[in-house]
């Protein structure tokens, strides 16, 4: 699997390349969606205005039923996590070492982004710029960071959930599903939105668990007709939930906090992914597509984290060129989106060349001390969670940069105490 890192050229001989393609396609689609949500231009009075053009379209809510691909991303991530955990433990690795390596893959690439935002937002606060424009840009730049908080929770739970999957796979699914339903019921019956945050512990781990079943071959053993039936049934359930339940028909609105419809959508997407495996496999036999998937996949974390800041910077630069910034949602604006997409990807890929050394985590240690890993995880989780809840700001950018630096420092240099003592004893005996 292509993971969210940029370490080295992957060995493609032992992986399901269709899942690499699915993950890359999902992130590229996220870039497209965000590109259509960022409208920066001049208003009738000549002042700068910001808007979210795609969300103002009458077709947007219905489009999210097909365009909400984050459940698929967590399904594919679950497959990768199950494969990674199996390989890790087979080589003698422990749970703390596994979590340490996974957190580093997320915290280390996020650190440069928080440093960049801290500097930019700090400088912007000192310049004569409309604070509303700065706040809107900060909010947009921090929009994708919810994923870090959700994925960090999922990765921390892999050792436990993998063991539960091995001994009681159905009961684990039922328990997580019950958690999702109970949290949603409490949230919508009380009207307290913050209750929904508890579903970070259930929704995405449950969708990740579907990826465990995919890794075990459960979907491979089902006949295509059965997978079609499950996908259709899940789609019907989803339609019913959104039509008669308390959930918003816009699946982006159901994203944070995450809700039951995302789980149902994840089931349908997992079935569709398996149904299209044969044509995707044929596509991945072409050298050109394999190269593109590796090129983007090996820089996937950079693409995900930096695409919105790059879109915002490019949109700002266009404001400085007379006639280059069409009014958001105008016909010219829609026509020029493909050009901005190409420019965004070119800049992000160029950035990835500069950031590759910063993001490289090196050879992972198979074991680690639990205490430093736990503290490092908390330091990595707190910044994206805060941004998810309250939005990006200069203060959160600075605090996030400091916490992520502490996380990376702890995780990169932490070792198991008994391992260090054993090394010291061996060296003393050698002398």
How would you sum up this structure, described in words?
- β1 (39-42) and β2 form a beta hairpin.
- A two-stranded antiparallel sheet has the order 1-2.
- The longest helix has 32 residues, at 95-126.
- It has one domain (12-430).
- It is mostly helical.
- The chain has helices spanning 17-37, 60-67, 70-90, 95-126, 131-142, 146-167, 169-190, 203-216, 224-244, 260-275, 277-283, 287-297, 300-319, 331-335, 337-359, 370-390, 394-413, 417-430, and strands at 39-42, 48-51.
- α8 (203-216) packs parallel to α10 and α16 (370-390) packs antiparallel against α17 (394-413).
- It is globular, with a radius of gyration of 22 Å.
- The chain contains 18 helices and 2 strands.
H/E topology pattern: HEEHHHHHHHHHHHHHHHHH
β-strand amount: under 5%
DSSP summary: helix tally:
18
How much helicity do the residues have? over 70%
Low-confidence stretches: 1-13, 416-431
Tally of individual domains: 1
N/C terminus separation: 44 Å
State the total count of DSSP E strands. Answer: 2
Tell me the major beta sheet: 2 strands, antiparallel
Radius of gyration: 22 Å
Shape descriptor: globular
In order across it, which strands form the biggest sheet? 1-2
Kindly name the structural category: mainly alpha
Task: State the assembly state of the protein chains.
Answer: single chain
Mean pLDDT across all amino acids: 89
């Amino acid at each position: 699997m292509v993971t969210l890192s940029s370490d080295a050229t992957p060995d493609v001989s032992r992986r399901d390349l269709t899942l690499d393609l699915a993950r890359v396609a999902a992130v590229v689609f996220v870039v497209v969606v965000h590109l259509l949500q960022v409208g920066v231009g001049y208003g009738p009075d000549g002042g700068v205005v910001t808007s979210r053009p795609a969300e103002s379209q009458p077709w947007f809510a219905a489009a999210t039923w097909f365009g909400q691909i984050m459940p698929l991303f967590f399904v594919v991530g679950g497959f990768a996590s199950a494969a990674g955990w199996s390989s890790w433990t087979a080589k003698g690795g422990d749970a703390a070492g596994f979590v340490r390596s996974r957190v580093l893959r997320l915290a280390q690439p996020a650190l440069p982004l928080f440093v960049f935002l801290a500097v930019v937002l700090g400088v912007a606060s000192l310049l004569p710029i409309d604070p509303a424009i700065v706040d809107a840009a900060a909010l947009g730049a921090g929009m994708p960071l919810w994923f870090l908080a959700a994925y960090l929770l999922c990765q921390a739970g892999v050792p436990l959930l993998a063991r539960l999957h091995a001994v009681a796979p159905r009961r684990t699914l039922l328990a997580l599903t019950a958690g999702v339903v109970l949290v949603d019921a409490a949230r919508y019956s009380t009207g307290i939105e913050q209750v929904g945050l508890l579903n970070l512990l259930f929704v995405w781990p449950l969708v990740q668990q579907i990826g465990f079943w995919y890794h075990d071959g459960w979907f491979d053993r089902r006949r295509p007709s059965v997978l079609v039936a499950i996908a259709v049934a899940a789609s019907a359930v989803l339609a019913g939930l959104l039509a008669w339940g308390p959930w918003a028909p816009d699946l982006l609105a159901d994203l944070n906090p995450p809700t039951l419809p995302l789980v149902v959508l994840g089931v349908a997407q997992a079935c569709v992914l398996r149904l299209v495996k044969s044509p995707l496999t044929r596509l991945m036999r072409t050298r050109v597509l394999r190269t593109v998937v590796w090129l983007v996949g090996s820089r996937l974390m950079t693409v995900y984290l930096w695409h919105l800041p790059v879109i915002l910077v490019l949109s700002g630069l266009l404001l400085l060129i007379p006639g280059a910034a069409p009014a958001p949602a105008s016909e010219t604006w829609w026509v020029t989106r493909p050009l901005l997409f190409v420019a965004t990807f070119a800049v992000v890929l160029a950035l990835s060349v500069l950031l590759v050394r910063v993001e490289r985590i090196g050879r992972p240690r198979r074991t680690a001390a639990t205490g430093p890993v736990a503290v490092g995880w908390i330091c990595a989780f707190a910044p994206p969670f805060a941004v998810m809840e309250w939005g990006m700001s200069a203060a959160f950018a600075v605090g996030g940069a400091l916490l992520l630096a502490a996380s990376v420092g702890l995780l990169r240099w932490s070792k198991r105490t008994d391992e260090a003592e054993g090394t010291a004893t061996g060296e003393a005996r050698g002398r």
